[in-house]
Amino acid sequence: MDKRQAVSLAVGGPYDPPVAVARDRCNRPLPSPVGPSSNAAHTERRLLLVHAHPDDESILTGATMARAVAVGAQVTLLTATRGEAGEVYPPELAHLAGDPAGLAAVREQELAQAMTQLGVRDVRFLTPEPEDPVRRWVDSGMAGTRAAPSPPGQLPFAAADRRQTAAAVARVIRELRPDVLISYDEHGGYGHPDHIAAHHAALGGARLAADPTVDPGSTDARAGSHAYQVPRIYEVLSPRSVVLAGLARAAAAVGQGRAPGLIAHPDPMLAAAVDDELVTTAVDGGPWLARKVAAMRAHATQLRVLDLAEGPLFALTNRIATPVEAVEYYRLIHGRSVTDEGARETDLFAGLNVGDS
Fold first, then answer.
1. Full-model pTM
2. Distances in Å between the alpha carbon of 25 and those of 149, 247, 265, 279?
3. pLDDT tens-digit profile of 239-289?
4. Is residue 314 part of a domain?
5. Domain containing 308: what range?
6. Number of folded domains in the chain?
7. Do 324 and 296 touch, CB atoms closer than 8 A?
8. Closest CA to 84 of 25, 127, 125, 140
9. Nearest 10 degrees: CA dihedral of 345, 348, 353, 354?
């Protein structure tokens, strides 16, 4: 592919008039940098990330977020659920695994702490109804597992009406007018139903936001109804060569007894990864790796981080040792790259005329 050519995300689609969504802050009130003129041209770079659960943002995009904050970008994290169905790593917190509401409350706190480490101040959750913050989408659980019944007013995100989830994202896009949008690929990275649903919500939201015939609705005059096309949209990817090399390093550390309590991946070829040629963009977050690690550590219910001489490792509840990567990888699926053909982008904002869209 000639990456100097534009990649197009088709606008429109068979959507009915969608339902709006209001912002829903996490644990503590966080000041929003969005002012009354948010529909006007802006001068700062703006990055919007759509993730499924607390911890996904730090593991997959933490260095990118910290880097964007460091260069003065406005970064907004939009999370679909509070991870109510997540497994719990530390034995001393095992009781939370049977308490979705309790786990959700703890994970909200963890997310707030993680975003403090990354410097991200605008942290939001999706909700189906703007006037009723009790209504929410909840963690659907892993594919093949049986999720606990949801309380009234709460619906597993993967089972939600895609028109509603797309409208929720569209309203935020029209309010913030981001220069860059990041979410997952159509497989959700590793197939989690909520990651797949977040992919559809993000792309559907981008389409709705760009369609001047659609009004996602609003209770906030700042959001308005002006159509807005996100200039550049990316999917998070993991190139196979990087994944295999990293798992080999982690396996060596496990074999040498330097990662106590962790195990090597039983079959690295089955790890979630894509062919290297699908990757268009590599964001080097090396200077912000310590912030990413600190953010990941904040998600203590979900994972464990080990500091090794060759670089940090982490593990989820499966105990598989995995490197914490300083470089994060993406595929440009909408917009124009200014990178020469055959070379990867290194800057999500390169070549964008910020504020002109």
1. 0.86
2. 24, 36, 37, 33
3. 999 999 999 999 999 999 999 999 999 999 999 999 999 999 999 999 999
4. yes
5. 240-323
6. 2
7. yes
8. 140
9. -170
